[in-house]
Each structure stands twice: as C-alpha cells, then as structure tokens.
Amino acid sequence: MACTEVRIQLKIKATMEKTTQPIVTTLATGSNLITKQMQAKAGALLPKHLADKESMVFIHEGECILNIHDKAKVLKQGDAIVIPAAAIHQIKVVKDFKGVHIMPIDIKFEFFK
After folding, report:
1. Domain assignment of residue 51, yes or no
2. How many CB atoms are closer than 10 A to CB 40?
3. Which CATH number characterizes residue 94's domain?
4. Res. 76: pLDDT tops 70
5. What is the distance between the alpha carbons of residues 88 and 78, in angstroms, rounded to a whole number?
6. Number of folded domains in the chain?
7. Is the model's pTM score more than 0.85?
8. Burial classification of residue 74, based on how many CB atoms lie within 10 Å of its CB (0-12 exposed, 13-18 middle, 19 or more buried)
9. pLDDT tens digits for 28-51?
10. Which residues span the domain enclosing 13?
11. For 16, what's the count of Cα atoms within 13 Å in the CB-facing half-sphere?
12. How far from 100 is each of 28, 43, 47, 84, CA to CA, in Å?
C-alpha cells in the first residue's frame, strides 16, 4: 500500500472516530512557560486543534501518531517534536501514552470537530 493511501485511510478513519479528552496534569509553571503531562490509552483519538504559539511535545511513554500538515508522524518513547504556531494537528494513541507538553503560559487553543 502506498504512503498516500495510508494517509487517506488514516484521515477517513479519524473522521469516523469519536475523540477522547486526554488526562492532563500540570507539572510546572514558570513566569513564561507551563509544562503539562498528557496521557491516554491505546486507541484514543485526541481532539484536533491548533494553538496561536509554538510548543513542544516530548513522548515520555508509549507511542502515538501525530497528524500534522496532512502528514502522519510516528512518535515513540524518547521522541520530541516542535508544534509550530497555527498548525492543525491531532494525536492517535497507538500504545498507552504519556507525553510532556511545554508551552508558553499565554497560549490559546482552537479546537475542531
């Protein structure tokens, strides 16, 4: 199966699945940054969204697929990625997942159905 076909199948499947809110815990808050832990079980599809500022996600445990800029990126334990401002993205959890999200304290999110 071609890579394009896999992306199309993932997009179709994602539009049919119900989203799940991750469990979010604040780990640390500074004067400019906040760090939160996100966690979800295998099979969860987290809400599609964008933010007005750049942030970073570090995969502490598990595995997920990050769909960003219409490309699927597999992220495993120990991986980190920069999420650019205004980039629409969504996470599908492959293995029970814990991620650390580092972001500006004044970040604003917009969610999509």
Report:
1. yes
2. 22
3. 2.60.120.10
4. yes
5. 23
6. 1
7. no
8. exposed
9. 999 999 999 999 999 999 999 999
10. 3-107
11. 6
12. 11, 19, 16, 16
